[in-house]
């Protein structure tokens, strides 16, 4: 259930019998012909669908993340790493103060990985509260399914091309794209990175049949739900 659909009294009542919650974090960045909000859309949706049968609340997604290398693509917004870590720290402090003791951060953006180190540091100072960072797209079963279909699938390819990340009236390019040279890309400033990555797809087919894409999504929801259920000890 979404926090947006609850009032404070309902949250207070919930905390009398459960202390779990989900905090999705994403990004606003280029995804080739897909929505700029792909990472935020998918992080929040997988969290909501996973938590709904369990009655665990999901907080609104943090829509901005760490993505400096995409800054030459209009519409991309980045946070400094220090800012991101301070924001997540404030969010965890707030949830801990309210009485949430088991917090699953559902991450939709690879550039947010510094949050993993923050979580470990934060828990050391808050031993009564457990926090997990879950990168939904590369959880073991989800990633294995993706790679079994298309080993070269990467950023902005079919694995992020779901019915709710497509844009009306926008047609995906045909075929597939050769993988971007990551070793070169990793050391380039934004303008040169854009020149290398072109439309922004990092490799693999632009689209696959919906049956395959939705099967990937089903697996991702199941893996996320399993983490909510625990164990948390």
From TrEMBL:
- Key word Metal-binding present: yes
> What high-level taxonomic lineage is stated for the organism?
Bacteria, Pseudomonadati, Pseudomonadota, Betaproteobacteria, Burkholderiales
Task: State the species of origin.
Answer: Roseateles puraquae
Q: Which PANTHER family match?
A: 2-AMINO-5-FORMYLAMINO-6-RIBOSYLAMINOPYRIMIDIN-4(3H)-ONE 5'-MONOPHOSPHATE DEFORMYLASE (PTHR35005:SF1), 3-DEHYDRO-SCYLLO-INOSOSE HYDROLASE (PTHR35005)
| Entry's Gene Ontology BP terms | riboflavin biosynthetic process
Report the sequence similarity comment from the record: Belongs to the creatininase superfamily.
Q: What GO molecular function terms would the record report?
A: hydrolase activity, acting on carbon-nitrogen (but not peptide) bonds, in linear amides; metal ion binding
SUPFAM superfamilies attached to this UniProt entry: Creatininase
- Look up the record and name the cofactor or cofactors this protein needs: Zn(2+)
* Gene3D superfamilies the record matches: Creatininase
Ordered alphabetically, the record's keywords are:
Hydrolase, Metal-binding, Zinc
**Official protein name in the record:** Creatininase
